[in-house]
Amino acid sequence: MPSNHTSMGVTFIGCGAAVPETIVSNDELAQVVDTSDEWISSRTGIRQRHVSHDRESLAGLATQAANQALAMAGVAVCDVDLILLATSSSEDLFGTACQIQAQLGATKAVAFDLTAACSGFLFGVVTAAQFLRSGVYRNILVIGADLLSRWVDWSDRNTCVLFGDGAGAVLMQGNEDIDRLLGFEIKSDGTQNACLNLPFKPELRELLPGVVLTQGKYQYIAMSGKEVYRFAINRVPDAIDKVIHQANLTNTDIDWLILHQANQRIMDAVAERLHIPAEKVISNVAKYGNTSAASIPIALNEAVRAGKIQSGHTIATSGFGAGLSWGAAVLKWGK
Questions:
Q1: Tell me: the pLDDT tens digits for 1-39?
Q2: DSSP 3-state helix, strand, coil percentages of the chain (rounded to 5)?
Q3: Is residue 50 annotated as a catalytic residue, yes or no?
Q4: pLDDT tens for residues 49-69?
Q5: Which residues lie below 8 Å from residue 240, measured CB to CB, with a gap of 6+?
Q6: Rounded Cα gap, residues 260 and 121, in angstroms
Q7: What gap in Å lies between CA 44 and CA 119, rounded to an integer?
Q8: What gap in Å lies between CA 86 and CA 66, rounded to an integer?
Q9: CA-CA distance, 250 to 34, in Å (whole number)?
Q10: Cβ neighbours of residue 40 under 8 Å, at least 6 residues apart?
Q11: pLDDT tens column, 282-326
Q12: What is the pTM of this model?
């Protein structure tokens, strides 16, 4: 920990991603549930998704993504101060971040999980920025990783077609001279929690006469698609508009828009309301489906490695989902 807590800026200098090897196409899914490629793709833009098998783990995929981000950033694993894992599908209810710390060999790093569903990666970036700006930490890995295929009801065609598995990571670094996080807003509305959740179902067990415990299991993902769609197309453009204004920019200053990859129709509607042309919208939902907290960093990583997003480019990004929660940020990529 640095001894002098001076005010620091934030930079985004490395990214990485990893997805399971198994791909399930819409046509293959139609053999499992009453659906079709046309039905799924016309409503969501999704054509396939990656799903994890028994030899793949949340920590393993997250570690792969983190190693790629470190390599791009040119930061040694021994110099990582904090590993912040955004996930809603931990394989250990006590947290998975420490497993990633061990697999990376990041012996100096503190590690913890943050749960905010599809908003998780963005919430993680904002949380990490506070540690960096205070000068407490220098290098932070923010990882978004989810294996939601494990929590999907594969007989429910309204939800099972949407979700996929994956991990994405970004290396954020403190910088005395520049600040690349230009503005952010994070929000929650718990009154709409029932629109999208993964509830615990208690089962009563009498431990002793008159002493009844509630033990049980988590259920499958439950979602009211219309409500979530309405929420997203209303709240997300407002949040992005606010942070663009906060950054003293206009919508024309935005080089790229990276939204949580939930549904192509949502992304199209948000971009249209913001008057951001389609060619500036990063979309890979067709290949991966909704990977929850992993979706923004996976999309970012693909665009950076394809040479689309370059150092100095201005990115507007937004995560939104269960909670209900949402947030937006404007940042510049690179050192």
A1: 444 456 799 999 999 999 999 999 999 999 999 999 999
A2: 35, 30, 35
A3: no
A4: 999 998 999 999 999 999 999
A5: 257, 270, 274, 316, 318, 328
A6: 9
A7: 19
A8: 13
A9: 45
A10: 26, 29, 46, 47, 161
A11: 999 999 999 999 999 999 999 999 999 999 999 999 999 999 999
A12: 0.95
How far is CA 89 from its chain centroid? 12
State how far the Cα of 110 lies from the Cα of 253, in Å rounded to an integer. 37
| DSSP strand pairing (196-197 vs 222-223) | antiparallel
Q: Where do we find the tokens 């993504």?
A: 65
- pLDDT tens track for 98-146: 999 999 999 999 999 999 999 999 999 999 999 999 999 999 999 999 9
82-86 and 139-147 as β-strands: parallel, antiparallel, unpaired?
parallel
- Catalytic residue, from 50, 139, 260, 263: name it: 260
Catalytic residue among 15, 98, 118, 195: 118
- 145, 61 Cβ separation under 8 angstroms: yes
Answer whether 104's CB lies under 8 Å from 110's CB. no
Tell me whether residue 5 is one of the annotated catalytic residues: no
Q: Which of 175, 181, 195, 329 is nearest to 258 (CA)?
A: 329
Active-site annotation holder among 139, 263, 290, 301: 290
Which residues are CB-neighbours of 309 under 8 A, at least 6 positions away? 255, 256, 282, 300, 303, 315, 333
* Range with the poorest average pLDDT among 87-91, 108-112, 198-202, 248-252: 198-202
Query: What token pair was written down for 87?
Result: 């996930």
Q: Which residue has the tokens 């999208």?
A: 196
Q: Which of 314, 289, 148, 321 is nearest to 225 (CA)?
A: 321
In Å, what is the CA distance from 214 to each residue of 55, 96, 108, 211, 247?
32, 25, 39, 10, 49
Q: Is 160 a catalytic residue?
A: no
